[in-house]
Write a structure and sequence with these properties.
binds adenosine-5'-diphosphate; alpha/beta; 52% helix; Rossmann fold; single chain; 15% strand; five-stranded parallel sheet; binds magnesium ion; binds shikimate-3-phosphate
Amino acid sequence: MKHGRVVLKGNSLPNLYLVGFMGTGKSSMGKRLAARFNLRFIDSDEEIEKSSGMSIKDIFAKFGEEKFREMERDFIENGHPKTGCVVSCGGGLVCRDGMPELVKSKGVSIVLFAEPEVIFKRVSLSKTRPLLNVENPMQRICELLDKRSKYYNRSGICVSSSGNPNDVEERLARIYAGRVKNMLKRGQD
Ligand SMILES: Nc1ncnc2c1ncn2[C@@H]1O[C@H](COP(=O)(O)OP(=O)(O)O)[C@@H](O)[C@H]1O
Ligand SMILES: O=C(O)C1=C[C@@H](OP(=O)(O)O)[C@@H](O)[C@H](O)C1
Ligand SMILES: [Mg+2]
């Protein structure tokens, strides 16, 4: 990324955190943005699976949701590089007291959102999300969105991911680049 006459290397750029409900596109947009800005892509779910040697599904089944939330907090506190990454955060990662503020303190945080119908369509193709393995996933999506919106609203600037993936990527890229430039300008004052 260019700033004045200085070209910033990917690994010195602030981390970008993508936050939001399951199926809003955090992992897929995260990969695109990482490639675009020459950043490393990290998915909190994948990192937790690697470090625990278990799948998300098995962690939920064996230890329960609260243990998984602790693992997510550890990951944000100590489990990833401080700069140079796009971090796709699991959908419930910010949904505990203090987590929106913690994530925002680590870099640029953007919240993706989409209508329940869009989310349902996107997640119904996969069975890897234990919280939606229920009889009525649409009802569950609406209940969870209701409970979680206060956390998402505090987690950063909100961007709709309902549109075409290229448009969503452009919007996210513009916001990230703008925020980085402002941070650097402030650093020079
Ligand atoms: N803007 C979009 N338009 C259409 N499909 C999308 C869009 N963003 C993501 N998807 C698709 O939705 C599904 C869930 O996306 P994913 O990135 O895994 O979401 P998350 O990580 O937020 O759970 C994937 O199949 C992905 O390709
Ligand atoms: O919303 C949630 O509580 C969860 C979202 C999932 O990640 P994605 O948002 O990437 O699907 C994963 O962390 C786990 O199944 C729990
Ligand atoms: Mg994901």
